[in-house]
Amino acid sequence: MKKINEWKHIFKLDPAKEISDEHLDLICESGTDAIIVGGTDNMTLDGVLDLLSRIRRSHTVTCILEVSEEEILTPGFDHYFVPMVLNSKDKKFMMDIQHKAIKEYIDMMEFSEVFFEGYCILNEDSKAFKHTNSFLPDAGDVKAYAYMAEHVFHLPIFYVEYSGTYGDPKLVEEVKEELDNTMLFYGGGIENSMQAQEMKEHADVIIVGNSIYTDIKSALKTVKAIN
Ligand code: 1GP
């Protein structure tokens, strides 16, 4: 299994969305480094377990649960990613949800399996932005968050999240310049090979989500495009 700092590409599957077995097989065997199971709306434990068991039935791809709410927490994943939303106006999305979960599960947590992600959500129209009551940071703000992710909080991951829309590659480039040890994840609106390559120029890892459901052929091509 590749180490996380060698990863380049992740597919993000939303348990609230339908995917056929055929498409799921293609995603799992695409050569992507990992699959994140995660979403914002209508996440249920049943949905998460269903997806995990369908993946595990015939594939060995690395599986990650993005734990945006405690109710969906379940054993069986290779890794657990816990978002901390740096640009949320509510402390609970940065600190309190995570604190409560750690207090409850501290004895069960294998810390090597758990990675905390410093999220910066930049698409005002996205569900994630609204749900977390985030504010729209300017480029200077984003770079300062990146600095804090690495030097203040020592987080392994800084996640530039444009969920649902293609972001600004120049900003991603500037953010990357702030980071030495913390990995830069980019997700949002990647629908084709060209966009995958453009964002991968600067980000350590690109995450492809929605296009799995809108144009699977194109989504699959993003893996080869950056390898
Ligand atoms: C969402 O960053 C991911 O959390 C991927 O974004 O769905 O827009 O590809 P898309």
TrEMBL record:
Q: Which key words are in the record?
A: Lipid biosynthesis, Lipid metabolism, Magnesium, Metal-binding, Phospholipid biosynthesis, Phospholipid metabolism, Transferase
UniProt binding sites for sn-glycerol 1-phosphate: 12, 159-164, 189, 209-210
* UniProt-recorded Gene Ontology molecular function terms: transferase activity
- Keyword Amino-acid biosynthesis found: no
Broadest EC class? transferase
Asked whether the keyword Transport is assigned, the reply is no
InterPro entries recorded:
GGGP/HepGP_synthase_I (IPR039074), GGGP/HepGP_synthase_sf (IPR038597), GGGP_HepGP_synthase (IPR008205)
Q: Which Pfam families match?
A: PcrB
This entry's Enzyme Commission designation comes to 2.5.1.n9
Q: What catalytic activity does the UniProt entry give for this protein?
A: sn-glycerol 1-phosphate + all-trans-heptaprenyl diphosphate = 3-heptaprenyl-sn-glycero-1-phosphate + diphosphate
Q: Which cofactor does it need?
A: Mg(2+)
**Ligand binding (Mg(2+)):** 14, 40
Top-rank taxon: Bacteria
- Protein's pathway: Membrane lipid metabolism; glycerophospholipid metabolism
Q: Which HAMAP family match?
A: GGGP_HepGP_synthase
Its family remark reads: Belongs to the GGGP/HepGP synthase family. Group I subfamily.
Name the job this protein performs.
Answer: Prenyltransferase that catalyzes in vivo the transfer of the heptaprenyl moiety of heptaprenyl pyrophosphate (HepPP; 35 carbon atoms) to the C3 hydroxyl of sn-glycerol-1-phosphate (G1P), producing heptaprenylglyceryl phosphate (HepGP). This reaction is an ether-bond-formation step in the biosynthesis of archaea-type G1P-based membrane lipids found in Bacillales.
Q: How does it assemble?
A: Homodimer.
Instruction: Tell me what this protein is called.
Output: Heptaprenylglyceryl phosphate synthase
Originating organism: Oceanobacillus longus
Lineage of this protein's species? Bacteria, Bacillati, Bacillota, Bacilli, Bacillales
